[in-house]
Amino acid sequence: MNRRWVLPLGIALAFGWHLVLRRHGVALPLLSDEGEYAYAARVWSEGGLPYRDVFNQKPPMTIAVYRLCAAMSPSPAAPRYAAMIAALLTGLALLLLAPKRWSPVSRLAAPLAYLVLSTTPVGDFGFAANTEVFAAAFTAWAVWAAGRGDRRFAALSGLLAGAALMTKQTALWPVLAAGVLAAWRGGRRWDPGAALAFGAAAAAIPLSWLGYFWARGGLAFFWDCVVAGNMRYAAQADWSAALEQARFLAVDLAPAFLKGSWPAWALAAWGLRGLEARWENRGELTAVLWLAGGLLAAATGLLLFPHYFLQAAPPLCLAAAFGVERLGSGRKRWAALAVLALLPAAAQADFYFGRSREAVAKDLLYPSPLLETEALGAWLRERTAPSDTIWVFGSEPALYVYAGRRAATRHDFVYPLTMFPKSPEPLEAELAALRAAKPAYVVYVDQPISTLIGSRLGLAFRDAVREWLAADYRLEGYVPVARDPEPFSFVGAASPDWAAQNRLYVFRRRYRRKGRGGRGPRRKRAPPRRRPRPKSRARSAAPARAAPAPSTPRSRGTRGP
């Protein structure tokens, strides 16, 4: 084969292999985070405003992507295809980052490794349309532009870095790495003009979003949710939580990742050994700074969810490409390329090709109620009118997406109210808003992983919600969240068993008949008085008063009063 065809044919095969491997996750139900973005995008498209009309703690770029996807397709899975495109764009940037002097096999190593590893079925890492997959794409192209050695490209790098920062706050660390690369000219030479161009351009997109929300009257809500809210979230960290997360990383997460990705880590260590000419080799410095930024981005998330590590995957694969190039002989390079492409898929072959959709959802994310949320959303859609509202006590916003109904309040998930409320006032305001909105159904998710209660105020809010439900709602039943992928089942119950957990309780609002005295129970009628007999003909000839017409009781509607 002519060598000039190796590169285009190889990248085409890598793209196709990525689509094959990512197929296992396209049909899975929406995650909690995906439900947040999809619901916020729907409110936005209907004339509302994120942060003001629906709570969200992420910057607006991902919500904008979800809104664009919803405009193109009504399928809840549409953003998953946008995530595929973002991954392919990241792979293309990695191809361009590989030095042109390398062999075609070594240049293919980084994009191929990323397009395989980014589908790894570890929790929600390999299939979700989450913020990280889009932030990684923006950052990869920012790093590519930063290495062009031109102030115009430094400005382009800044624009892309600003877009990454408006996709996920933790992208700050890879963005800083891109800024260093944009200003660095090799050795100990720096270009202040390039640094200024990068910084000014990086501020353009965040300032544009601030101007948009200011013009729409939602700047204070944007600031409170995206900046102040995340600062309160970070303030909850303590040493015990950090130690527990470190144990989780060492015992559970790292072995699951290394099961298929250990060749990439081994090649990265081989490629970066010694860091020859530390301040002269731009490629190595790029991989090191970017990888450090990606790992810091994962650690800054505090709770080490698997998808946090996606920002570290592109620089890891770039470092692995250095290892492939340093293998020397062509046969060794081809063998390394085959291992990077096939070993991760072979290690998780049952997930990729064998198990059913339901089994994959349970094996990856139990006890998250993915299947139960999808089925219960359809159940609620059948039993409510489009004008009805529902409310979920928990963090399962996908219910609003599958039900096609609006949330009764701006809080489409409750952990800001249960985990780190800043004072009792927001909790009282939420309860007042719920009483005024009178949602037709309330879904109470009895799962610690969904409610995330971490304060005394959160416990007080939970108890107040239970009292409100007991006074104004009737328990219809619950949906059990089982370990096995069993069919959707709705179990009738007269009262909740709060100690059972792993249940989605469904409460329906009580509607009372209207009596003659208005709402409330009918009043007993007094016995009719007898009319006295007329004493004279003249009196008896007087016109009798007309009897009142019988009143027709108002019918009780099936939904609402």
Write structural notes for this entry.
Mean pLDDT is 87; it is low at 515-528 and 534-561. It is built from 23 helices and 7 strands. Helix 1 packs parallel to helix 5 (104-117), helix 4 packs parallel to helix 6 and helix 5 packs antiparallel against helix 13 (313-325). The protein has helices at residues 6-26, 32-45, 60-72, 78-97, 104-117, 131-146, 151-165, 172-183, 192-215, 219-235, 239-271, 282-300, 313-325, 330-347, 349-354, 357-365, 370-383, 398-403, 415-418, 424-437, 448-451, 456-472, 537-540, and strands at 389-393, 406-407, 441-446, 473-480, 503-509, 514-515, 518-519. It has 2 domains: 3-124 and 218-355, no CATH class; 366-514. Helices cover 58% and strands 6% of the residues. The strands form 2 sheets. The protein has a 5-stranded mixed beta sheet. It has a two-stranded antiparallel ribbon with strand order 6-7. It has 561 residues and is mostly helical.
Number of domains: 2
Helix/strand-derived category reads mainly alpha
| Overall number of strands | 7
Q: What is the helix content?
A: 55-70%
Strand content: 5-15%
Radius of gyration (Å)? 30 Å
* SSE order: HHHHHHHHHHHHHHHHHEHEHHEHHEEEEH
Shape label = globular
The side-by-side strand order for the widest beta sheet comes to 2-1-3-5-4
> Helical element count?
23
Mean pLDDT: 87
Poorly predicted runs are 515-528, 534-561
Largest sheet: 5 strands, mixed
Oligomeric organization of the protein chains? single chain
